[in-house]
């Protein structure tokens, strides 16, 4: 499948693996793909993010992803739903971190434990994003899968990346408008 990926899309996948390794994560997840996209410059995805004003707010996106990791990957919507049942996720996180240290629920390993050589596997969510990116490219009749397709897949699939992007004004519809010229400037 990766033979259909552009140089930029392959760079995003490599960057996601590097983010996962840097965090000590056991596998590459959707947030690692988004973090890798935020680092891109001169690509269609970076153009779209800049056009939607996210270039200046990359730090805020990283912070929001880190906060979601602290909540063991629960989205804000999940936390609110649990609050409706009387479960205070913030309190649970605080208690766990009090005993085990800050970031204990994130799954990140800062002590170097759990590191291994070889290929880092992709979590189910990250695999779904890569597959969705391919389906989006095919549906749009684009010949190759670019980093913009990965960004579109992240924006359309429910989860932390889509929630964080939407909180910063980057929605699937806004991306389509910017990338494909449906009402706004078109990405080159």
Question: Would you write up a description of this structure?
Answer:
- The chain is an all-alpha fold and 188 residues long.
- It has a single domain, classed as Orthogonal Bundle (Double Clp-N motif).
- It is 60% helix and 2% strand.
- It contains ten helices and two strands.
- Strands 1-2 form a two-stranded parallel ribbon.
- α1 packs across α2, α2 crosses α8 and α3 packs across α8.
- It is globular.
- The chain starts with 6 loop residues before the first helix and ends in an 8-residue tail after the last helix.
- About 5% of the residues have low confidence.
Secondary-structure map:
Blueprint (H helix, E strand, L loop, with lengths): L6 H17 L3 E2 L1 H10 L4 H8 L6 H13 L5 H9 L4 H12 L20 E2 L1 H16 L7 H10 L3 H8 L4 H9 L8
Parallel strand pairs: 1-2
Helix pairs in contact: 1-2, 1-8, 2-8, 3-8, 4-9, 7-8, 8-10
How would you concisely characterize the structure shown here?
The chain is built from ten helices and two strands, in the order αβαααααβαααα. It has 188 residues and is mainly α.
Q: Key features?
A:
188 residues, single chain, mainly alpha
- The proportion of residues in beta strands is under 5%
* Average of the residue pLDDT scores: 84
Identify the quaternary structure here.
single chain
CATH topology: Double Clp-N motif
Q: Residue ranges: pLDDT <50 for 5 or more in a row?
A: 109-117
CATH class: Mainly Alpha
Give the number of helices. Answer: 10
Q: Categorize the overall geometry.
A: globular
**Total tally of structural domains:** 1
Structural classification: mainly alpha
